[in-house]
Amino acid sequence: MKLLISYTDFIAFIKELEKEQNILYFPLSDNHLSNSLINENLENFSLINIRTIEPVKSLFFPLKENLFEKIELRQRIVVGIKWCDIQAIKVLDKIFLSDYVDENYKNYREQTLIITADCIYPQQTCFCSLVGGKPYVEQKDGISDLNISFVDENNLILESFTIAGEEFLTKYFQNFDEPTKTEEFQRNSNREVATKKIYSYNNEFLKEEDEKYYKTLKHTYELDKIWKTESEKCVQCGGCNFICPSCYCFLIREASKSHSEQYRDKVWDVCHFTGYSRAAGGANPRKYKYQRFRNRYQCKFVYRYENFGFYACTGCGRCIEVCPAKIDIRKVIRNLVLAKGEEALVRK
Amino acid sequence: MNIYIPKNFKIVKIIEETPTIKTFTLKPLDGEKFNFQTGQFIELTVYGVGEAPFTPSSSPYKTDTIDVTIMRVGRMTEVLHSMKEGDIVGIRGPYGKGYPVDEFVGKEVLIIGGGVGLAPLRSLLLTLIERINDFKKIILCYGARTPQDVVYKYLFPEWKKIKGLEILRSVDKCQLGEWDETVGVVTCLLDKVQVDVKNSVAIVCGPPIMMKFTTLKLVDMKFAPQQIYLSMERNMSCGLGKCGHCQIGSYFICKDGPVFTWEQLKNIPEPFE
User: pLDDT, tens digit, for every residue of B259-270?
Assistant: First the structure.
């Protein structure tokens, strides 16, 4: 189902949603992810930015989760997340919902209606195009229940992708029309403009995703020297791990008082930390910084790709933005591919 | 039931194997059976201290209790070693893929263990002994650092009586007159075994350095990579293929292992680091 709706009506609708007993998550004009629980002023609601600063993973996989606490079952609605966020949820779903099901994660996912939005103003740090992505969400991308796209500054197209999304549209938007062909055409050309912008920001790396490029990364494993150079500036703060929307590593922290008074939680962990892979007695398969640094790249572009058929990097660019040493994941990969002698793969 | 929360087990017996190794017999508090496949591992919790992965050393045919043989090496095992019979610990599991025992039928089974690495292999050996006629023969090569470091000393006399099971043992070093078997690292036992390589499998467990050199030796002896089974270990935290700690190449040891064939690992850089 597809409807045309004005921006003003949409804002009115968001305010209406907040009045109901839903927990609403939404982006602000300063690019933070806020929610209705902390009473954020909806005046600052904004749809036009790139993905929020905070990763959406924290909605389903909180920073710290008491494993004995029953989670509150309440409808949640997240509005305005992007293609890169959707991709990250795909990675998390693979981890937390396959084989042994993580019940809390499953509950959080099932309780959350996902409303995505097109990216109209990508930034220099955006590189979804390099990992097979694009600045808008379509039905075939999965995960999203409903998508918001832009015709112009005053008009949006709401499009449902799932039954839940369709029910939602039917419930809240009875008196709206379908967009005309012209309006859809206008929306599509906005998408094209955004896509081209991302291409232009990433010209020095690649234009589009290229499997061969990342396959080469696998074979750079033994280039210890280059990995050492690339990781030299890394201060191992863990910022990139925490802010990465698809980094899922965690530690089970056992902190019971006794067997009858148990407590444990699941906390985010960081593969850049020395203790991450250290075993009892001190043995550590990734003793050195460059080994841990290399492992993160291999994990995202090689290992998870082998497992899932898609990358565990979403091209959101949060790690580039957060890094105090200004390490750019795109440049690191390019330098390694070049060091492997594959110039042809880089300069398009 | 939350997958990350353990069940309570009572310590019903403690055997001091060596000055640093103890075997704990654990019984589920709820009286339920504990079923596992030999080679699978468990996550053992010392409440308030930590949780760590171990592989049961008892036979999977015994389901009322399980044994775990544990070396005192870190913070959690230090506390565990100070615990007494009657104390309560937590267990999650069993997890991972164990030894594919059915694939060993009709073959010679060569088992090579080093130090406390004999623990999971004891479970395997007990499983094989239950159906010993299914295998052409079983050879156990076991190496410890010194005669004092040999685990399950009290079991060897019984095992030596079993037809179809050959046992070779070595110690790295010893005092004069203290040891009348082989002196040297465990790989030198492989020079002494009579094995029909083409129709056999080799199973290795021990410290990383021992696993590495034993694997190289087996490859030298013309064992095919898919005939060599390795029990890998890392600091598995969740045990469920989620937390990421035990990642080795594109595998999670906890989910895809802990038993791997060399065929699976040979192209992974530094698997024994």
Answer: 999 999 999 988
Q: Please give the ipTM for the structure prediction.
A: 0.91
Closest residue on chain A to B91 (Cα): A259
Do both A236 and A136 map to the same domain? Answer: no
Per-residue pLDDT band for A347 (boundaries 50, 70, 90) equals low
Q: Do A250 and B237 touch (CB under 8 A)?
A: yes
Given an 8 Å threshold on Cβ–Cβ distance, is A250 in contact with B235?
no
Question: What is d(CA B216, CA B212) in angstroms, rounded to the nearest whole number?
Answer: 6
Tell me the count of A-B CB pairs closer than 8 A.
108
CB B205 within 8 A of CB B189: no
The whole-number pLDDT of residue B91 equals 97
Chain A positions in Cβ-Cβ contact with residue B49 (cut-off 8 Å):
254
Please report whether residue A206 resides in a domain.
no
pTM of the model: 0.94
- Do residue A172 and residue A227 come from a single domain? no
- CA A279 to chain B, closest CA, distance in angstroms equals 5
- Identify the residue whose tokens are 């992974």: B268
User: CA angle, A268 as apex, A264 and A271 as ends, to 5°?
Assistant: 125
Instruction: With CA atoms as reference, report the closest residue to A56 among A118, A141, A120, A114.
Output: A114
Name which of A100, A277, A303 is nearest B245 (Cβ-Cβ).
A277
pLDDT at A96: 97
Chain A residue numbers touching B243 (CB-CB < 8 A): 249-252, 269
pLDDT tens-digit map of B14-45 = 999 999 999 999 999 999 999 999 999 999 99
Judgement on whether residues A221 and A137 belong to the same structural domain of the protein: no
The number of domains in chain B is: 2
- Measured CA to CA, the distance from residue B212 to residue A72 in angstroms comes to 50
| E strand or H helix at B92 | strand B88-95
- Does the residue B272 lie in any domain? no
Nearest CA in chain A to B270: A285
| B81 and B126 inside one domain | no
Q: What is residue B269's predicted lDDT score, i.e. its pLDDT?
A: 83
Location of structure tokens 């994660």 = A105
Give residue B1's pLDDT: 73
Nearest chain A CA: its distance from B208 CA (Å): 9
Measured between CA atoms, the residue of chain A closest to residue B89 is A259
Query: Which residue range is the domain that position A38 belongs to?
Result: 2-201
